[in-house]
Amino acid sequence: MEINLSWDLFVVVFFTIIVAYSYVIGKYQTLKIILSSYMAILAADGVGNLVQRYMIGEDPILNIFVGQNSIKALIFLKIFIFVILTIILATRGKFGIVVSKEKNQFIGFITTVLYGVLSAGLIVSTILVYISGSSLVENNSLFAENPLLPIAQQSEIVGLMIGHYSAWFSLPAIVFIISSIFGDDTESA
Questions:
Q1: CA–CA distance, 188 with 98 (Å, rounded to integer)
Q2: What is the dihedral of CA 176, 13, 21, 80, to 10 degrees?
Q3: Residue 126 CB contacts under 8 Å (≥ 6 apart), including other chains
């Protein structure tokens, strides 16, 4: 049996791991990961854009340290900041989540899985957007051509993740808002 590693396999495995982990940690911690991801996305993109403007742009201070690979270093920096801040905020962040109780366990299971899928989509699509050299805050790209374009042409899943990034970015917040508005009693974690 021959196993071909592909981007589709990577995305499916990553999604499965995050959804399973979300079920293990529960809805409250998954929501905390989603909110932490939003803050980390903004911080990583902002810091990355500042580094690009002041260290790679006209006065290339960063080129002294990384040579000709400054764009790759910037992409790595954004991904590193995003992942580290998401982990730190999700595990050590001093904020709590207040959400409505579900009336039965099946609905609780479904919402936990839904938040897990949305969390996975947000994280995976953000990393893919960063790999492509794009910015979420500014409308620019570090690369003349999108390096994920050949991958997106080979992988429908990667194409969907990048092409519909706005949906992956907004859906967790929309679902959280809807569940907050239409809940009955609240409990916090």
A1: 4
A2: -80
A3: 37, 41, 82, 136, 165, 168, 169
Task: Give the tens place of pLDDT for each residue, 51-106.
Answer: 877 766 555 554 555 555 677 788 889 999 999 999 999 998 888 777 666 677 88
Backbone angles phi, psi at 160, to 5 degrees: -65, -40
pLDDT digits (tens, 9 = 90+) for 31-56: 999 999 999 999 999 888 888 777 66
Please give the C-alpha separations between residue 186 and each of 27, 81, 96, 100, 112, in angstroms, as whole numbers: 13, 33, 13, 4, 16
Among the listed residues 103, 122, 109, 110, the one whose alpha carbon sits nearest the alpha carbon of residue 39: 122
Name residue 5's beta-bridge partners: none
* Residues 62, 50: Cα–Cα separation, whole Å: 12
Task: Give dist(CA 82, CA 97) in Å, integer.
Answer: 21
Residue whose entry in the numeric block shows the structure tokens 């299971």: 109
What one-letter code names the amino acid at 67? G
Q: Can you read off the two tokens belonging to residue 146?
A: 């999108």
Select from 87, 72, 73, 80 the least CA-distant residue to 25. Answer: 87
